[in-house]
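User: Could you walk me through two proteins back to back? I'd like the raw sequence and the structure tokens for each, with a short line separating them so I can tell where one ends and the next begins.

Assistant: Of course. Protein one, sequence then structure:
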Amino acid sequence: MTNPYFPLLIALAASAVVALAGLGLSHLLGPSKKSKVKSQNYECGVEPTSTHLHEGRFPIKYYLVAMLFIIFDIEVVFMYPWAVAFNQLGLFGLVTMLTFITLITVPYAYVWRRGGLDY
């Protein structure tokens, strides 16, 4: 009789082989010519002008908006099952969801008030 974890071991080994083969093939077949342009940082379409290079930082407003989108997208994902089971959850479910919405809305109001969404 074989070990019940043997199929899991085979799946892990197969995934490791595929991952390592992909890395090896990209190293062997990929372009290897280095240049100054390829070595520069790429920051979401913002050209690395001399002003930004001397400051040492790129504007982070794009990242802030992206993170807010992800947070509110996750909030909607959690609100859908709550809305489906609202009658079964009763007052406890209502209080829990109001707490959750408050915990998500407070940072949003903070970022909005500080001007993080202004361009």
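----
Protein two, same layout:
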Amino acid sequence: MWRVTSKPAAVLNLRDLARLRRVRDRIDREYAQPLDVEALARGANMSAGHLSRQFRLAYGESPYAYLMTRRIERAMTLLRRGDLSVTEVCFAVGCSSLGTFSSRFTELVGVPPSVYRRDAANATAGMPSCVAKQVTRPVRTREATEKGRTGR
């Protein structure tokens, strides 16, 4: 028996991957804007649940986790500059709650933002920005301890 579909499965997968890439690019561009999974899903013509599942399959983390990682990366850069307070950095990267920002920062970086600001200002002095970005990229504390245990 023939199965009738309007589009082959491979095309749907490629189409979903293209949509997911556009969502990821939007997060990278608009990280400081108020973004939520529902708005991202609407922009990709997907349901929020489908977007979350497919994004996690493609990138290994939820859209929200990816967004927060981008925000924390940018916050790390701003904190290393040293000319903004932690509160100013929190709002500059799109977080609306200092408590949530501090908790997430500590989870990803391993130290609170105030400690990072104090200690990291000179850590990348003289280092090319492309190297500094790679060296200072946040890694979830849980993932770092799991990698340490497995040796990967």
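The chain has a mean pLDDT of 83.

Let me know if you want the two compared in more detail.
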